[in-house]
Design brief:
By secondary structure, this protein is of the alpha/beta class. The protein has 16 helices and 18 strands. A 10-stranded mixed β-sheet has the order 5-4-7-6-10-11-15-16-17-18, with helices on both faces.
Length: 581
Amino acid sequence: LIASWSDPHGFDFPHINVPQVSTGQTGEIQSSRTSAGASCSPQNLSQYPSGWPLQLDWGIYWYGPNGQFKKATPMQQVVLLNPTTWFKHGDQYTNGTERWKHEFFDPARNTVIYFHGWSGTGAWSTKDCKRVTATCHADQCPGGGQQLADPWLNAGWNVGFFYWDQFADEQCKRDAEQKIWFDRNGNGLKWKSYHPNSGSGQSHQYIGTEASISDLCVAAVKSAIGAFYKGKTVRFVGRSIGSQLAVSCAAKLHQDLHVAAPQRLSLLDPLFTQKDHIIPGMSIRCGKVTSETGIGSYTQEQTAQFVEQLWLQKRVVTEVYTSSQDTSDSDEDATAARKLQTYAVWVMYKPSWCTSTNNQDNCERRAVFPLYFLSKALPPPPLVGQGGGRRLLQESAACKVPSASCSDDQLRALVEMHLDQAAGQTGAGLVWEQVAGTDTFTLDDDTFSLSGPIPNINAISPDPSIEEEVARSNAIQQRHWGLGRRWHLGNESGSSRSQLHVALKAFAFVLLFPLLVFGTYSLVRLAVDRRTLSKDEEDENDSDEDDDEDSEVFSAGCSQSPGSSKAALMSQMSSPLKNPK
């Protein structure tokens, strides 16, 4: 991980020293599965042409209606030194709607991408051929089968899941967590494969240029969304340690000045592992006594600083939702926790309805995942007085409680209110707590109250200056493809065809204008010359005719006899004497 750097557009990665820790052993894996279950059926595995879980399969899958999904196909990228990539190429699709029907992705739609967490559990583990999907599991939703992507699809969004489950399949959460940030020994990230029939497994080292799961995420987002994205907003949603991945990946995309850099982060039950100290110099980590220093509070500090800097420098808004009181394996780093709470709005669900699911403990830890995705279909829940009293007066479309259905600018207004309430005191912001609807899975009866003094709700609105910053941000500017697009927005930004057409017309005009002037001048000169020549010829003909007439008169005079000429002259001289008056 790059510890310290500065980009010319004002986003600085905070400086945190990366800890050095030892790596675990790789090789054969002892699997607890003795036979192939329904999840490992040929019908289920046929959804993954890559050969998962025997072969490595990571990246983004796009979701369609009724839980359908497809692996994202690479979209066009921009290569700085290859001018043929600077402008969008045509493909087999005539428009974005046709593309979405075949690929479940349209570059003109808004986009949400979900990042799962640790996969070393029975709910979704590689050895059992199980993956978290947009179809809700019975451990999280009463009865199971709810389609979590449908509310977003109905609202016209692209819905993607970033899968890194074969890397996150570790016995210890800590080992999966630190892969998000760095490769411990620099010899390749460890991943696991399993034979779908026997369940026998093997560990492997990933050989690639990416040095962390965050780097894999950046590569996957760039490939799946491409350089010619036109959607108004991108939202990253992470759960458990996947929240760290969502934040880190977002920071790297903003560093790279990429068009897909997100405007909003939604962290669901963010988890940070810690050591459990038993005596000075010794601790319990992953069930073993160790003297290693480990990664300590590194991941929480880094996540908190990224959230802070993304807001201050890029106006990326962060919301945190919890349905469990546990955000770490043991004691949190207090400073990092307070900083995270300062720059993110915080919502606490209380899902007592989890008693009706297959696994109450798992449900309470994961309930916020389906609650968040399903809440996209409903207006933001109402805010009530403390203690669950009367509902406070608010418009039906107002966003007084953070929700998936709140717009980005509405959520920014809540963050601004949150920061004003904190008044510069780290960790002293507001918390929205659920006070009604806790015993039902349905969302339309949920209400929330604020932990602190309730500000003037009707006065809450986005700060125009902050909204102007967002509109001028690099990622948003890159999604404008008209004549007003800025020419240089980053080494991986595409160029506008509208501007290309205007530029070609201007170039053609500059190139052809002298030729046009010269040609026009030549034609005019030719016409003038021809007219002058024609007039000269006419004058010459007239002159010839006059000469001919003079010649004829002279000839006629010369042809008369001297006598007749004398008689005529005498006649003219004597004519006045005739008929005197």
